[in-house]
Amino acid sequence: MLSGSAWGDRFAGGDPLAAGVSVTRTERQVPSERHRPVLVVDLGAQYAQLIARRVRQAGVFSRIVPHTVGADEVMAHRPLGMILSGGPLSVYTENAYLVDRQLFGLGVPILGICYGHQLLASMLGGTVKRTGDAEYGRTELTVTGASRLLEGTPQHQNVWMSHADAVTETPPGFERVATTGGSPVAAMEDRERGMYGVQFHPEVIHTDHGSAVIEGFLRSACQAPPSWTRGSIIADQIEAVRARVGDARAICGLSGGVDSSVAAALVHRAIGDRLTCVFVDHGLLREGEASQVTETFGRYFQMDLVHVDASGRFLGALSGVTDPEAKRTIIGEMFIRTFEEATGDIPDARFLVQGTLYPDVIESGGGAAATIKTHHNVGGLPPDLGFELVEPLRDLFKDEVRAIGKELGLPDEIVWRQPFPGPGLAVRITGEVTRERLDVLRAADAIVTEEIHRADLYREIWQSFAVLPAVKTVGVQGDGRTYAHALIVRAVTSEDAMTADFARIPYPVLERIASRVMNEVPGVNRVAYDISSKPPATIEWE
Ligand code: XMP
Question: How far apart are the CA of 377 and the centre of ligand 1, in A?
Fold first, then answer.
């Protein structure tokens, strides 16, 4: 976890993006007067998002732009500064990513990190070489001269390195301010022109004074005030939602997940009763989930909430169906139809609130038009329902969404909820989905969740849940043999759901889960732990 360190606690937590699924459109971004951004120029997607989050954690709005960005586009953002990210390439290879040379003449302060540092050096007349002294991991840095970015940090300090090439000579106008064994110029500054480069990664927590370096750049070089706070984000979004929706009505499909919940709470703050939330209960939810949604949104927030209990309909349609794809299709289509029926008679409903997050809309890499997640979005809404979209979270990272949710008064159970698939428990039951099997799974799943919470593992695990396979096994209870359900426990760690590994849950926790499930859930006589990674397995069973 990257939160809760020296990085300040402006935004609690730091869970990466929950699995979602959307083909997103890019909208023209209007720079807010209050929140002029620092632009992170993406020279290798893996690094840019973390840098952008660090900038925000230091209280400054950030946006990610592709390395193909032109000077005009940069200026349209009215940026306070620019950060050139790290990247996997070498500056002197033929296909190396470059940036528009005009970016260096805009008078906007620039910080180059790792590859960005080398790019600054090579494009401005310094020298980058493969010295043969690659540095990976913790490395001792020595500050050799007066530095704006390293001011106030010790002369000898640990930084995190990951590079094979090194800057060996500074470009004209730059001064070397730090060095390491393998990097003759580990940090350089041209304070006059406002350009800075560091070979190490200040954005990772293993760099002892990384936050100071980023803060130094933001405050001393960019003069950026720490104004990106929960309160100001909420205030801005309320204003923007009001301006967009005007006197019309908006509807929001609530799933109980964090994104749609925070989006709903925010829009409700903005337009009150002119928001109608629609919660379609397909009967495939976890224990207590439906009542929590109605309690939170209907009772506590007093929202106009339409609760559609469609469980009978969904279960009827799923009766006898065992093929995973057939189940998904039935659920997906029925979900949309049910939502349409429920919203058809809401007068003046022109807008649809969606919980799209920033990672879904970032343009990155080699200038690709938009990030498109290929994952199936069963249980969500298609973009062509005929509404105009309101997406109040489309500038925000997941950790910011959680922080705002908390600020808006949402309970921890919602703010910290692990991702849950649209088709719900149906993808965790192999074979036919019946009421009886759902009851078994729900009871076992509640125990898994409770014990994972009790072991204080819930937040660091990406998803943890129970699966009911179409398998019965022989057991023994008292004097007799049983023939009952086997139950699978699945828990994974992941950054983005694209890859995952099984969570190394301590044996005593697994033991407690197994023993409770077998004792408390009638019809289960065996519990197994799924130790598959993704790939080749997937997180869900179907
Ligand atoms: P898999 O099983 O493909 O899941 O490894 C990756 C992530 O996506 C979630 N998931 C879904 N989410 N609708 C959703 O909204 C779906 O149809 C769906 N299928 C899987 C899954 O829980 C995991 O986080």
Answer: 8
> Which tokens in the block code for residue 453?
């919470």
Task: Pick left, alpha or beta for residue 379 (phi over 0 → left; psi -120 to 50 → alpha; otherwise beta).
Answer: left
Residue closest via CA to ligand 1's atom 19 equals 421
Element (H, E) at 501: strand 501-502
Name the DSSP class of 285. P
In angstroms, the CA 175 to CA 155 distance is: 17
pLDDT in tens, 347-380: 889 999 999 999 888 854 443 333 333 345 677 8
User: Cα(517)–Cα(524) distance, rounded to whole angstroms?
Assistant: 7
What tens digit of pLDDT does each residue of 278-337 get?
999 999 999 999 999 999 999 999 999 999 999 999 999 999 999 999 999 999 999 999
Between 347 and 55, whose confidence is greater? Answer: 55
Q: What is the dihedral of CA 218, 221, 225, 229, to 10 degrees?
A: -10
Contact 326, 427 (CB under 8 A): no
Q: How far is the CA of 361 from the centre of ligand 1 (A)?
A: 19
Torsion of CA 490, 496, 499, 500, to 10 degrees: -30
Sheet with 349-353: strands ordered across = 304-309, 275-281, 249-254, 349-353, 388-390
Euclidean distance between CA atoms 63 and 89, whole angstroms: 22
| Token pair belonging to 391 | 């997406």
Residue 494 CB burial class (10 angstroms; 0-12, 13-18, ≥19): buried
* Cβ–ligand 1 contact at 257 (below 6 Å): no
Instruction: Answer whether 424 contacts ligand 1 (Cβ < 6 A).
Output: no
| 377 Cβ below 6 A of ligand 1 | yes
For the entire predicted model, the pTM comes to 0.88
Alpha-carbon gap, residue 259 to 420, rounded angstroms: 11
DSSP assignment of 57-119: HTT--EEEEETT--HHHHHHT--SEEEE---SS-TTSTT-----GGGGGS---EEEETHHHHH
